[in-house]
Design a protein that fits this description.
This protein has 625 residues and is of the alpha/beta class. Helix content is 36%, strand content 23%. Bound molecules: 2-deoxy-2-amino glucitol-6-phosphate (AGP).
């Protein structure tokens, strides 16, 4: 996820407006940034920097102020190409006359880049985004317009048509903001699977990833829909479909202040990120599922079908929430006939010494900087194992010490308590498990298509699950005074019981334990007291009958049981309260069952007035051992 912005108007402080907008979008990405602006004489100014927007602001401030202009800006969360000044947006065409900023992923950028290179285009970055500027350059040329001969009244229609034709070549997701030095009277924007909103000012207009970028200037906004183009001029904004048909749009007035806007109107980043999980899963799966069996993964990260067949075992390693994702991975891979293990990184040393080149170590880390996980990876590589990392942070240390990297595409996760990154990790693991199963003949083409279809339904099912937020909040508030919680489940949802316990511990500071339900009678059942909250994850599946028995045993000893069920399993389980989820295949249930537990933890913490986004004693990335 990145933050893009655009401005056009009479304000003499265009570059300051762009920089300020980027500062308010930094929660969307902050590894590098840049702005570009063009004045009425078509003089183009472009400045980029690696690092946060403040670095860029200092560079811009050192330069002479510039008059009113059209401009674009970008703050990056890298997906293709490590964080660097060269890879920072804006990106330009060969002649540095067309300037693009982009949020999203151009799935077919390699194909487009190959054709453009063959046509003589010169590239300056490793990014997918730069391809857009060169395609646009080609489209302008293909309109048989010799730039010097363009009549001034033709500049806007030619720019618009070249941009419109460019969009037809792009596959994937994009929110774009584009300027052309020869046409300083217009900023063009387009939206497909990435948010874009227009701000309506007086003698000036804005376009950005979200309203926080320009809310201090105007509260009158127009939200764009997928498949729409915005032609933004200083005194007007017109909207069109990608086919060029004009679209009438209504403006709305935003009631948020700019701080609330950074959180999308949510009270905390954690809640906002819980609500971004459908998008995180969708973006992580996009373009990577079919054909299942390795070619896609080989193209992206050099993991061939032959290698996936050859590995004798898979060993997951991580910390905290990422470790819980490892435990789901172990069940999945074993389900597909692959020997698999999962270890906490800080307890990995002895295991690492037993590894060899026949083992694939899968290291999972949102930050890619967790010291324990990095140390575990070094030990594994010293033993000769191959390492595949699953991470959300392009260019992180972990990626530079791995043989293969599978990125989650969740965008920055600001809340210390990991939520959307966890869902992204699960999505990546399901993706990997499916390719392994297909490559090893454990999943035929029909099964693979069904598996992929079930996975592609998950984002919608996540949204359906989130519709129960109010009911979950009501249940959680009823337990705000409790000091002890138990979470239990079995099979592929046992790790979700652990994750639910961790979530409530880290943001509510109460004692909570996750347990395999089958273990209760081996000791933990002794701690149950009358009214003790016990959350039981019990979807339909092979473990349901045993789970129903465990819930009965807990209730008999006074536990106050909240069961996470689906319509069918609700008939089998006798609990005090139910949170009923949409149905999915048994193996995929962790992608849904964790969500009510995240919301439960959030609303208990909210009722206890805890500092949810920055819990005491915790850091977002633990870079010490
Ligand atoms: C989870 O909510 C915590 N923030 C913590 O357990 C985290 O998952 C762990 O520190 C691992 O971080 P990583 O994914 O960046 O390696």
């Amino acid at each position: 996820m990145c933050g893009i912005t655009g401005y056009i108007g009479d304000n003499k402080k265009t570059t300051e407006i762009l920089i300020d907008g980027l500062k308010r979008l930094e929660y969307r990405g902050y590894d590098s940034c840049g702005i570009a602006a063009v004045d009425a004489k078509s003089a183009l100014y472009l400045k980029r920097a690696s690092g946060r927007v403040d670095v860029l602001a200092k560079l811009v401030a050192e330069e002479p102020a510039r008059g009113p202009q059209a401009g674009v800006g970008h703050t990056r969360w890298a997906t293709h190409g490590a964080p660097s000044e060269d890879n920072a947006h804006p990106h330009t065409d060969c002649a540095s006359q067309l300037v693009v900023v982009h949020n999203g992923i151009i799935e077919n950028y390699l194909d487009l880049k190959e054709k453009l290179l063959a046509a003589g285009h010169k590239f300056k970055s490793e990014t997918d985004t730069e391809v857009i500027a060169h395609v646009l350059e080609d489209k302008l040329k293909s309109l048989h317009v010799q730039e010097k001969a363009i009549r001034s009244d033709m500049l806007e229609p030619v720019f618009f048509e070249a941009f419109r034709r460019t969009l037809a070549d792009l596959k994937g997701s994009f929110a774009l903001s584009v300027i052309w030095a020869k046409c300083p009277s217009m900023v063009l924007g387009a939206r497909l699977h990435s948010p874009l909103v227009v701000g309506l000012g007086k003698g000036e207009n804005f376009i950005a990833s979200d309203v926080s970028a320009f809310l201090k200037h105007t509260k009158r906004v127009i939200f764009m829909n997928d498949g729409e183009i915005a032609a933004v001029k200083k005194d007007s904004v017109d909207f069109y479909t990608f086919q060029g048909k004009k679209v009438a749009k209504e403006s709305v007035t935003i009631q948020w202040d700019s701080t609330m806007a950074e959180k999308g109107g949510y009270k905390h980043f954690m809640l906002k990120e819980i609500h971004e999980q459908a998008e995180a899963v969708e973006n992580t799966l996009r373009g990577r599922l079919l054909p299942m069996g390795g070619d896609i993964l080989n193209a992206e990260m050099g993991l061939t079908a032959a290698a996936m067949k050859a590995f004798a075992s898979v060993q997951f390693v991580a910390c905290g929430t990422a470790y819980h994702a490892c435990l789901v991975g172990r069940v999945l891979f074993e389900n597909f006939g692959v020997h698999a293990g999962a270890d906490v990184a800080s307890e990995f040393t002895d295991r690492a010494r037993l590894l060899d080149k026949h083992t694939l170590v899968v290291a999972i880390s949102q930050s890619g900087e967790t010291a324990d996980t990095l140390f575990a990876v070094r030990e594994a590589r010293a033993a000769g194992a191959k390492v595949l990392s699953i991470t959300n942070t392009v260019g992180s240390t972990l990626t530079r010490e791995s043989d293969h990297v599978l990125y989650t595409h969740c965008g920055p996760e600001i809340g210390v308590a990991s939520t959307k990154a966890f869902l992204g990790q699960l999505a990546a693991i399901y993706l990997l498990a499916g390719h392994f199963a297909a490559a090893r003949g454990r999943m035929d083409a029909g099964d693979a298509r069904k598996y992929a279809e079930d996975l592609l339904k998950i984002p919608r099912l996540i949204e359906e699950t989130l519709e129960q937020e109010k009911e979950i909040a009501r249940i959680a508030e009823g337990f705000a005074a409790s000091e002890h919680f138990l979470f239990i489940s079995r099979h592929v949802n046992y790790p979700i019981a652990l994750e639910g316990a961790l979530k409530i511990k880290e943001i509510s500071y109460v004692h909570a334990e996750g347990y395999p339900a089958g273990e209760m009678k081996h000791g933990p059942i002794a701690i149950i007291y009358k009214g003790m909250p016990l959350l039981a994850v019990a979807p339909s599946g092979r473990a349901l009958d045993l789970m129903a028995g465990n819930i009965e045993e807990a209730k008999a000893r006074g536990a106050d049981v909240v069961a996470i069920v689906d319509e069918a399993s609700r008939k089998t389980v006798r609990a005090s309260r139910y949170i009923t989820l949409p149905k999915t295949s048994e193996l995929l249930t962790p992608l849904l069952t964790v969500i009510p537990l995240q919301l439960f933890a959030y609303y208990v913490a909210l009722a206890k007035k805890c500092d949810i986004d920055k819990p005491r004693n915790l850091a977002k990335s633990v870079t010490v051992r």
